[in-house]
Structure formats: structure tokens, C-alpha cells
Specification:
- The chain has no helices and ten strands.
- By secondary structure, it is an all-beta fold.
- The protein is 0% helix and 48% strand.
- The protein has a six-stranded mixed β-sheet, with no helix packed on it. A four-stranded antiparallel β-sheet has the order 1-3-8-7, with no helix packed on it.
Length: 113
């Protein structure tokens, strides 16, 4: 059963950092494109970052370029999203997903002073 479980969210002040984790089961992440999405209250879900089967193949939304970094640790079957210089507009529920996994519960990120 393909499953992805997000963790690592929390409350952080503007300018702070968080690292989100996405633990996969039922498939090896090395064989799959993984994506982080987010959904803010009252807004549509948006793609934040993706990482291909090659570590050098990453893409980012313009709104997070230079601040967020997606990475993978194949031996832990886990994908990460390092988020630096956080802004209030980054507040959202963050989800990770591949092409066949169901949507998980996500992890809440709140950026506020």
C-alpha cells in the first residue's frame, strides 16, 4: 500500500526555518517523482516543489525559489522540504505526494509573530 506521511510542521516566527519530512512506505522513493504541495485557508492547493529520480532534477514555485529546498534520503525512504526565511504567506497545510499516492493529512505550518 502506497502511503506518504508528512511531519515537521509547527508555529514559527517570520524569518524562521522549518524542515518538513515525508516518510514513504509501499514503494521506493528513488523510483518516483515526489512533490510538495500546500493549501492555505480559502485558497486552492498549489505545487511548491518537486524532485525527480535524479537529485539534480528539482523545480520550485516562484514564490519559494531561493528559500525552500527539496531533497531526498533514499536509505530512509524520506523526502524533505527545508524552508528558510519563512513569511506569513507561507502559512498553509503542506502535503507530499507522488502520482499514485492518496492525499495524506498534511502538516500545518503557521508563520506568525
Amino acid at each position: 500500500q502506497v502511503q506518504l506521511v508528512e511531519s515537521g510542521g509547527g508555529l514559527v516566527q517570520p524569518g524562521g526555518s522549518l524542515r518538513l519530512s515525508c516518510a514513504a512506505s509501499g514503494f521506493p522513493i528513488s523510483s518516483s517523482i515526489l512533490r510538495w504541495y500546500r493549501q492555505a485557508p480559502g485558497k486552492e492547493r498549489e505545487l511548491v516543489a518537486s524532485i525527480g529520480t535524479s537529485d539534480s532534477s528539482t523545480t520550485y514555485a516562484d514564490s519559494v525559489k531561493g528559500r525552500f529546498t527539496i531533497s531526498r534520503e533514499n536509505d530512509k525512504n524520506t523526502v524533505y522540504l527545508q524552508m528558510n526565511s519563512l513569511k506569513p504567506e507561507d502559512t498553509a497545510v503542506y502535503y507530499c505526494k507522488n502520482s499514485i499516492s492518496p492525499w495524506g493529512q498534511g502538516t500545518q505550518v503557521t508563520v506568525s509573530s
